[in-house]
Design brief:
Shape: globular
Distance between the termini: 38 Å
Number of helices: 11
CATH topology: Rossmann fold
Radius of gyration: 19 Å
CATH class: Alpha Beta
Helix content: 40-55%
Number of domains: 1
Strand content: 15-25%
Largest sheet: 8 strands, mixed
Structural class: alpha/beta
C-alpha cells in the first residue's frame, strides 16, 4: 500500500473507521474515500469534518470524499466500487454493541453483519481490488478456549451464547476472505482485534461495550450522586485495546503482510491485542478513580457475565514487528476527555 493508493474505508463514521481516517491523514495518504449511512460525518469531530457532504474537502493535505451507502444492499455496494475504483478496502463497518445489545438484537446482528461483509468482499473480488482488510472480533473464539487464544483455536468449540449471532457473522467474514484467496488468489486478509475503546465510541449504556458504558454511568453518577449498576459478577477477565493501537496495526499489516504470507502459516486471520487482561471489577475501580467519583457500586448477578476470560495470543503479530503503545489507564483518560468534549 502506497501513500498515493486510493483507499476506501467502509464505515468511516464509527469509532474504528474514524480512527483509521485520522491515522491515514497523519500518515500522509492523499486519496481517501469513506462511507456513512446514519451517523453523519460532522457529528464526529468538527476539527476534521465539514458539515457540507455534497462536495469533497481538504484537511491538511488529504482529501476525504464521503459516500452515503447502505452496505447491506448489494446494488449500492457495487455502485460504490464502480464509482470509487479503490486500490485498498478496509471493512470497519459493522453492527456492534455490548453484551445486552448482542443478546437482544440477535437477528439484526447476524443479518446486518453477514450482509455488509458478503457484499463488500464479493464486490472486491468482482472489481479486482488489490488488497482488502476485514475487521472482526475476538468473540469468534470458543467460550472455553484455552487462554491466551491463538488463531488456530477458531472453530474448536462452542461459542458464547450471548454473542453467538455476531460471532458467526464474523467467522463467515474470515472464511470469505480465506476462500476468495484459496479459489481466486485475492489478497484479502482478516484481523481480529480484542475489545476496543477510544474516541468516537458509542456511549449509550443500553448498547455500548463495557468501557464506554462504564464511563457514561460513572459520569452520570458523578453529576447526579447516584449508584452504578454493573452487569454480572465482575469476576470475568477482559483485554482492552485502544482504537489508535488497532489502526496502527491495520496500517502496519496493510504495508507488510500479504494473504499468501498469512495463509501459508496455516491460519485464517491474525490477532491484534495487548496480551494483558484485567477483571471487570478492577476495570470498574480504575474508571471510577479516573472520573474521580465515589458512589455505590452494585453488581447485578442475575445478568450475564459472559465468558470467564478472553485474552488474545498476539505472538504472531509481534513477530511481524508490531506491538501496542497505549497503556490502559492513559487510554481511558483520553477516552473520557473526548467524551466530555463531545457532551459540550
Amino acid at each position: 500500500m502506497e501513500k498515493s493508493s486510493k483507499i476506501l474505508i467502509a464505515g468511516g463514521t464509527g469509532m474504528v473507521g474514524s480512527a483509521i481516517i485520522r491515522r491515514l491523514i497523519k500518515g500522509g495518504f492523499t486519496d481517501i474515500h469513506a462511507t456513512w449511512r446514519t451517523k453523519t460525518p460532522q457529528k464526529m469531530d468538527h476539527s476534521l469534518f465539514q458539515p457540507d457532504l455534497k462536495v469533497s474537502f481538504n484537511y491538511q493535505t488529504s482529501p476525504i470524499i464521503w459516500h452515503k451507502v447502505d452496505l447491506t444492499r448489494q446494488m449500492e455496494v457495487e455502485k460504490l466500487y464502480s464509482l470509487v475504483k479503490p486500490d485498498v478496502v478496509i471493512i470497519a463497518a459493522a453492527r456492534v454493541g455490548g453484551i445486552l445489545a448482542n443478546d437482544t438484537y440477535r437477528a439484526q446482528f447476524i443479518y446486518e453483519n453477514l450482509a455488509i461483509e458478503t457484499n463488500l468482499i464479493h464486490a472486491a473480488h468482482i472489481y479486482k481490488i488489490k488488497k482488502l482488510l476485514f475487521l472482526g472480533s475476538s468473540c469468534i473464539y470458543p467460550k472455553n478456549a484455552p487462554q491466551p487464544m491463538r488463531e488456530d483455536y477458531l472453530l474448536t468449540g462452542e461459542l458464547e451464547p450471548t454473542n453467538e449471532p455476531y460471532a458467526i457473522a464474523k467467522i463467515a467474514g474470515i472464511k470469505l476472505c480465506e476462500n476468495y484467496y484459496r479459489q481466486y488468489g485475492d489478497n484479502f486478509i482478516s484481523v481480529m482485534p480484542t475489545n476496543l475503546y477510544g474516541p468516537n465510541d458509542n456511549f449509550d449504556p443500553e448498547t455500548a461495550h463495557v468501557i464506554p458504558s462504564l464511563i457514561h454511568k460513572f459520569h452520570e453518577a458523578k453529576i447526579g450522586n447516584g449508584k452504578v449498576t454493573i452487569f454480572g459478577t465482575g469476576k470475568p477477565r477482559r483485554e482492552f485495546l485502544h482504537v489508535d493501537d488497532l489502526t496502527g496495526a491495520c496500517i502496519y499489516i496493510l504495508k507488510n503482510l500479504d494473504a499468501t504470507q498469512l495463509y501459508s502459516m496455516g491460519i485464517s486471520h491474525i490477532n491484534v491485542g495487548t496480551g494483558k487482561d484485567i477483571t471487570i471489577s478492577e476495570l470498574v475501580k480504575l474508571i471510577a478513580s479516573i472520573i474521580e467519583v465515589d458512589v455505590d457500586i452494585v453488581y447485578n448477578k442475575t445478568k450475564p457475565s459472559g465468558v470467564k476470560q478472553k485474552l488474545l495470543d498476539i505472538t504472531r503479530i509481534k513477530g511481524f514487528g508490531w506491538k501496542p503503545k497505549v497503556a490502559l489507564e492513559n487510554g481511558i483518560r483520553d477516552t473520557y476527555d473526548w467524551y466530555l468534549k463531545a457532551k459540550g
